[in-house]
Structures are given as C-alpha cells and as structure tokens.
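JOB MANIFEST
job_type = single_chain_structure
chain_count = 1
residues = 105
[input]
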Amino acid sequence: MTEEERILAAGERALGLDRRDIEGPEGDRHRSAWDRQIAPLADFLSAVEPPADLFTEIMADLHAEQARLVTEADARTRSWRSAAILAVLLAVGLGVFLLAETGGG
C-alpha cells in the first residue's frame, strides 16, 4: 500500500466509511491526523431526531420488497413446475407408445 493509499484509508476510517485496521503506529498516526482535521466540523452540526415513524416506514418497505420477491419466486417456481409436469407426461406418453409398438414387453 502506498503512502497516499494509507492516508486515504485512514481518512475513510476516520469518517466511518472503512472499518479495517491499518497495521501499526503509522496507521494510527494517519487516523489521528484525520480526526484532528474533521473534529472541528462537528461543532457546526446539531443533533437531528429522525421522524418517529421512520423505522416503521423502513420495515414496511422491506416487507413489501420481500413480498414482491416471494411472489416472483413463486411465479418462476410455478412455470418450472409446469414444465417438469409436462416433461413427465411426455415421457410417460412416449413410454406407453413404445410399449404398445413393441407388443407390450
């Protein structure tokens, strides 16, 4: 890893974007440098409370997506099941035909 990559990785960790640990004191030094540069930005931020129903909305969206995926999977399963049944019926029909043609075995 080059020096520039180490500095960028330390910045990503300082921002909470990358949780990997860089080995040794050099990584700690880069991380501390980023922390010192970023910390003053927090003075301009105020706490923001999320809307009370945000979690409920997220869970509803996830449930709707899960239901959609299950429905799609069911539709695919039905078409494969239909194709398999048709293949079995054709095989049985062919077997009956061949038995009839050869005199019943």
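[summary]
The chain has a mean pLDDT of 84.
The radius of gyration is 31 Å.
exit_status = 0
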